[in-house]
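Hello,

I think I submitted the cytidine-5'-triphosphate job twice by accident. Can you confirm which output corresponds to this input? Input:
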Amino acid sequence: MLKGKKILLGVSGGIAVYKAVALTSKLTQAGAEVKVIMTDHAAEFVTPLTFQAISRNPVYTDTFDEKDPAKIAHIDLADWADLVVLAPATANLLGKLANGIADDMLTTTLLATEADIYVAPAMNVHMYQHPAVIQNMTALAAWGYRFIEPGDGYLACGYVGKGRLEEPEQIVRVLEKDNNRSNKWAGKKVLVTAGPTREPIDPVRYFTNYSSGKMGYALAQKAAEQGAEVYLVSGPTHLTVPPLVEHIPVTTAQEMFAEVTERFAEMDLVIKTAAVADYRPKAVLDQKMKKQKQEWSVEMERNVDILQYLGEHKQQQFLVGFAAETQDIKNYGKDKLERKHLDAIVLNDVSRRDIGFDSDQNEVIFMTKDGTEQAIKQASKLEIAEQVIGLIDDQIRKG
Ligand code: CTP
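Support: Only one job matched these inputs. Its output is below.
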């Protein structure tokens, strides 16, 4: 997800330099091009050759070691970088940056760059809490430096506490998260429902359906990547909540109804992917039902149709429903679109094993209230989500 990004990695001298090697590897694996500048102290811990081999680029340590006479290396690198990561950033490096000192290749390049700078500090816990370090970090943060906080844990100096360089995987995750965001939907509030609901019969049994939640989670992720504030009201799933998405877990349709309607008034867009149970057991037993000789019938009553309710109460919200069908998909879909007063509906053929419920793939038709239809060919649910979000965006812009 960092494909093609030009990342300048600044490595200063602390024991965590060895982790910067793993970070270089993870960044290149994520598709980034990495160039490394090391301070002299960093090179005391790990040789530049190690970083050179992993980044497949020359490593810079000396301002006056001009490798190409046609260029001035520190200005060239400063302009080259899409983003800069300082890991580990020592107390000394933070002090120099906060005071505009440029006395080596790294600090000189940092003064010259206009790229976004991410700082992953690593130091002893007492150094981290020193007022001078705090003041320097506060100043840098106020200038827009983005801090990737050190983790708590065992420190090489023998202390346990805050100061350990954040794990390389986590640093990569932060960069990916930020770099996949656009501002297209900044300021928009989006609510997505996902997953199945569970309707209890007794303390050990429930009715549910095969929904995995994958399509809804993908849509929440893609909406968040447009810069929207995203709320994901989700029935029980095994999925990881996407970054920057607020997760509101629910179990039953009634709980989903309560959480959705509580937030509905302030939303700009609602996408109802959830496979809400249409019925629930009329009585929920307090104790486990013991098996009997005779048959057992469970009387069911209707759950509220959440989407229908939203359609009837909507004002500014753009409302998108999903239709899970096994036959006559377009006609049933069109009927739901009209009956539930939707702006658009996404039609899903759940009779096919290769797409739909638990699959990672999907193939859908996006239908709007003004009669347009767009078939989205079979692709991963994330890719489908991206296209659906794009089509919704077109509709919203049309007004
Ligand atoms: N839906 C809802 N509340 C319900 C049932 C469905 O909000 N109690 C929403 C789903 O989230 C989905 C849409 O309605 O966006 C269509 O769901 P689907 O199960 O396909 O259709 P139903 O309305 O249940 O209609 P039918 O049973 O006739 O297929």
